Amino acid sequence: MPEVLDSCFGDDYPIENINHCPNDEVVAGLSTKLYYIVEPHVATFTNPPKEGTYEEIATIPAAGLVPVTGKGWKKIDVLVNKNQLQNLTVGTRGIKKLKGQIDVFIPGFRAKLVGFQRAHLNSRLIFGIKDSSGQMWIIGNKINPSYFENLTLASGDTDEADAGLTGQIMANTSIFAYNGDMTVLADSTTPETP
Question: CB of 79 within 8 A of CB of 126?
Answer without folding.
Answer: no
